[in-house]
Amino acid sequence: MKRRTFLKTAGASGTAALLAGCTGTSGETTTAESGGGAETTTTQGTTVDGGDQTLSVGTYASFVDAPSTSPGVWLKDEFESEFDATLEWQTPDAGVNHYIERSLRGVESGADLYVGLDAQMLVRIDDKLDEALFTPAEGLSRLGDVNEELEFDPQGRAIPYDTGYISLVYDETQGEDGPFTAPETFDGLLESEYAGALLAQNPTSSATGQAFLLHTIDAKGEDGYLDYWAQLKENDVRVLGNWADSYTAYSNGEAPMVVSYSTDQVYANQSGEDLAKHQIRFLNDQGYANPEGMAAFADATEPDLATEFMDFVLRPEVQAEIAVRNVQFPATTNAELPEDFAQYAHEPPEAVTFAYDRLKDNLSDWTDAWAQEFASK
Amino acid sequence: MDTLTDATRTPVRWVTRALEQRLLSLVAVVTAVVLFVLFYYPVATVFADAVVDDGAFTLEPLTEILTSEFYLVDIIWFTAKQAFYSTLASLALGLPAAWLFARFEFPGRETLRSLTILPFVMPSIMVAIGFVATFGRNGTLNRALTAVGLPPVELLFTLEAIIIAHAFYNAPLVARVVTAAWESVDARAVETARALGANPRRAFRDVVLPQLLPSVGIGATLTFIFTFASFPIVLALGGFQLATIEVFVFAKVRDLAYAEAASLAVIETVISLTLTAAYLSYEGRQRAAGGAANPLPRQSVVPTTWSPKSALQTVGIAAYTVVVGLVFIVPIASMILASVTGADGGLTLEHYAFLAERQATGATYQVKPLPAIWNSLLFAAGTLLVAVPMGVTMAILTTRRYRGRTLIDALAMAPFAVSGIVVGLGLLRGLVFGVDVFGTRIRVTGALAIVAAHAVSAYPFVTRNVAPLFSRLDDRLVESARSLGATRTRALFDVELPLVWTGVVAGAAFAVAISIGEFDSTIILAEGAGRYTMPVAVERLLGRRLGPATAMGCVLLLVTSVSFFVVDRFGGRWGEL
């Protein structure tokens, strides 16, 4: 009898919840927006309320939510304390792809600005979209402070705010007799003593992996880089999924070298780690520069506020703070960095990078050819 | 007869009765609608990219892949090969566990059994961390080997590493499904066979084995499908040298090369679905009569009388325990250890302190531990309530005989066979951004959408745990109940459900596990609006140092262990009432 009562209630409540779930889905969480063309009114993102404006900024998650340090919280507080506005962070999981996707589906971007673009992303955007996702930056008073070498968008949409140099990080303590030292050139990586010694990342899905691949193309040429990678593979290089996968394996001592950033020691120093395990090597005395930029959406509802934010980010003191918190180099020439940052963040003797136009015509061919050469053989 | 007339007289009872009569059809219709909105429509929008180019039908992207030696041999064939080996390993590791759980009594058996589902909710990055720490160059295994004077093994970044990690995920699945089936074997049938002169081995082969095979089949099929679509584990433990189809699907999606991504996903899905259909038609033919009221008695792991045979059995169990320890316990223990290890290698609680601090002072747009725990539990409870009725209804519908049943069955099982990346992308494009219906943009997001999406991926587990037991029920039981005046629904609740209850509980535990472990659609449907779950928090906390992510991983481990314990224990108790 008891069982019967229970089963009856359990069954009934299960069904009730299911029904509630269904009607609820259409009743509570569905928002109807007028679709189609010019009359579309935006119901997302910005609301103007008695002069207090809201600036919606899209970015990648770790810019606001890294467990170590991240510039997001500080930027929001500083910006809001000075401007009569609210800064709202958006961190879609797919990053900038989220906004490309929206544009492809005919949905407004819902944000004013994106922070965290690189040249490869711009190429992807321009490749996939006919309409402009971002608009050229106009009226910036501090544009002249930006290091010219870092400017990567010929159309002037993306303004660099920091840069990283992709380099090798190696662990001196892993040497068998005496300290381990990384080779000085790309050719050196092919020597037998470095067999199985390098962890890299998948260039088709990881930013550091892609930058390292581009660096090999710069060093070995378009005709030579596939051969070079075939030899690297013979020397047992390991290409893992992303930076986190490979850095975890590196930290566990799986291999003495990993493709990472030349700012690696900054954080290692802050957290009191053994710097012998965080040595930097610039192959061929070069580092691949991967500047990060910000750009205003073409359909931004607060374009003026977006411009003010970009100018704010380019201020010397803000540049220094972003550099320290994002563990990257500033993009402007006049930022004043704290001493220990300068001591532990290494800049390559020569920075290498592909210009936008070169990437635009070749990037997907290069990575596709690499993937077919390298995978599952 | 009196009750019938009574029922028609009182309105309340009339409604109850009408509802009872139509309940099955109602749940079936609701299931179909949910499936269409949250699964078939979104997935179709992605697959369309494979065959539609600028509004015109084309087979070019598909033929391009199917005529490419690279994709056929290097990628697709390799994917199938590693999935096959992974399935063998999962069976080898999972079947002995099912035997132990179903046939032996030992302290902590119930608890251990509840916990076998834990690997299912472990974020793959946590598993990768645990495996590197266990099987890596400086890992526990190598330190143990060196300590006893054996040469170290290089296991990481090989096919073997991938296979072991896949077994970590899927052997518990095999063990769970087979244990549920084994426990519902009627002891009287075995006794009858023995009374008729069969020796124990013969009785096992002729009576027990036929009742276990469908569940072994489902365990193997699921393992193959899951490992066929494997991606984070492959990259983290094998590297790009061992890339699977799914690795390429992900890369193409990230590059927004949808025609190629969709074509690869279509090929992947066709292979998985064909396999599912083949299995289902086999399962349909495996019908054996028998009830489930009298489970087989369990014996003690330590034999009461020692004989060469019982000694061998005990040694076997001991050896198996060592292997289980290495594959399951050491990786999890390594992860727990990582959560209390500081940068200098010493013990510390700083990572947990970080979580507490984040909870206290974190900004609204940062992930915090408590909302993650609360959301995970809320979504899991919702999923349980939605997926169990859906799954049981589908099990009833798919155990009836009619033409095209295998097709319906395979379509209902499709959520298994379609990769998470494709479902996530489809949800994003079809529902999160909205669909124009007669000039109105319909969007589906939020908590209820997440629960519905979790239920869609969870209900096939309920179905597959329950369906084999349903198909074994004696039709005459239901017929007698119906002839005595019971409605179809009443017959279900009073006669059938109690007999298949072990399967329902097993399915319910899976539903909870799927919901807690789900990542792809959660993060998309949540839209960052405070609806993140524990796995999302783990992923977000990953960075330059591992500590906070592993600490959050341990929180996930603790919360889910307690949940499964509750589901299994209370589920079991209710079943016995």
Characterization of the model:
The complex is a heterodimer of chains A (377) and B (577). Chain A has 377 residues and is of the alpha/beta class. Chain A folds into two domains: 31-164 and 290-339, Periplasmic binding protein-like II (D-Maltodextrin-Binding Protein, domain 2); 165-289 and 358-375, Periplasmic binding protein-like II (D-Maltodextrin-Binding Protein, domain 2), CATH 3.40.190. Helix content of chain A is 39%, strand content 18%. Chain A is built from 13 helices and 13 strands. Chain A has helices at residues 2-27, 62-65, 71-82, 96-104, 119-128, 207-220, 225-234, 243-251, 264-270, 303-313, 316-326, 339-344, 356-374, and strands at 33-34, 53-59, 85-90, 113-117, 134-135, 159-170, 198-201, 238-240, 257-261, 279-281, 286-297, 329-330, 350-352. In chain A, strands 2, 3, 4, 5, 6, 7, 8, 9, 10, 11, 12 and 13 form a twelve-stranded mixed sheet that branches. In chain A, helix 6 crosses helix 7 and helix 7 runs parallel beside helix 13 (356-374). The longest helix of chain A is centred in the N-terminal third of the chain and has 26 residues, at 2-27. The model of chain A is unreliable at 1-50 (pLDDT under 50). Chain B has 577 residues and is an all-alpha fold. Chain B has a domain at 67-254 and 305-338: MetI-like fold (Orthogonal Bundle). Chain B has a two-stranded antiparallel sheet with strand order 1-2. A two-stranded parallel ribbon of chain B has the order 3-4. In chain B, strands 5-6 form a two-stranded antiparallel sheet. In chain B, helix 6 packs across helix 14 (308-339), helix 8 (159-183) packs across helix 10 (200-228) and helix 13 packs across helix 17 (405-412). The two termini of chain B are 29 Å apart. Strand 1 (33-34) of chain A pairs antiparallel with strand 6 of chain B, so a sheet runs across the interface. Chain B: One of its GO terms (cellular component) is plasma membrane.
